[in-house]
Amino acid sequence: MQQTDIPEKLLSLVYATQTDPSMWQAFCDELNFVSTVPVMMFGHNLTSNESLGLLGGGLDPAELETYHAHFADKNPWMQMNAVMPTGTVGVSDQALERRDLFKTDN
After folding, report:
1. CA distance 33 to 21
2. CA–CA separation, 70 vs 88, rounded Å?
3. Are 68 and 78 in contact (CB under 8 A)?
4. Cβ contacts of 16 within 8 Å, gap of 6 or more
5. What is the 3-state secondary structure (H, E, C) of the chain?
6. C-alpha R_g of the chain
7. Residues 52/24, Cβ–Cβ less than 8 Å
8. Which long-range contacts (CB under 8 A, 24 or more apart) does 71-75 make?
9. Which tens digits make up the pLDDT trace of 64-88?
């Protein structure tokens, strides 16, 4: 894969999610592949009012299960998600300063 193909493939996957929301997993997997870092995405379909759940690329399914079992109800970033305007993307540092992150699992 050439570097010029990367954005096009990711964009194609985003477009594919319009008709098939399950393609978000393929997007996370591809983003993990091209960035070489683990990817986590929370999503909610406003049209159908359905959660897309927690998706991950480059993460072991057992890690995601551990997250669901222990951290899902403590996720400090969800407060940011509740107030973000529809259609915007945020980064974790906007919602929670790193020094405060270490206080969240007490």
Report:
1. 20
2. 27
3. no
4. 23, 26
5. CCCCHHHHHHHHHHHHCCCCCCHHHHHHHHHHHHHCCCEEEEEEECCCCEEEEEEEECCCHHHHHHHHHHHHHHCCCHHHHHHCCCCCCCCHHHHCCHHHHCCCCC
6. 15
7. yes
8. 71/105, 74/104, 74/105
9. 888 778 877 777 777 777 777 777 7
pTM of the model: 0.66
**Which region holds residue 94: left if phi is over 0, alpha if psi is between -120 and 50, else beta?**
alpha
Structure tokens at 52: 């897309």
User: How far apart are alpha carbons 26 and 13 in whole angstroms?
Assistant: 7
The answer to whether the Cα torsion of 34, 15, 56, 73 is positive or negative is: positive
Q: Which amino acid is at 98?
A: R
* pLDDT tens, position by position, 35-70: 898 988 877 777 777 777 788 899 888 888 887 788
Output the furthest CA–CA distance in the chain (Å, rounded).
45
Query: Could you tell me the two tokens for 29?
Result: 């997997």
